[in-house]
Design goal:
The chain is mostly helical. The protein contains two helices and no strands.
């Protein structure tokens, strides 16, 4: 009985460790997507209202191209 209980606890902690690793990897992918969007948007800025609109659209387009774990 003690072995079965220990196995269940160990399995639970293993699953938790995998989930936390997945969250950290997703966070890193999201940060990379945000960084790429911001960088792409800055290239479109030219000091005009049209440049601001182009930068905003560029950021949206670049963010849409980046998927976190295929989603």
């Amino acid at each position: 009985v003690l072995v079965a209980l220990s196995f269940m606890v160990t399995s639970g902690f293993s699953a938790l460790a995998v989930d936390i690793g997945f969250l950290y990897a997703a966070r890193a992918q999201l940060q990379n997507a945000v960084d790429m969007s911001a960088t792409g948007a800055t290239w479109a800025l030219d000091g005009t209202d049209q440049g601001l609109a182009a930068a905003r659209q560029s950021a949206i387009d670049i963010a849409a191209m980046n998927h976190v774990f295929g989603e």
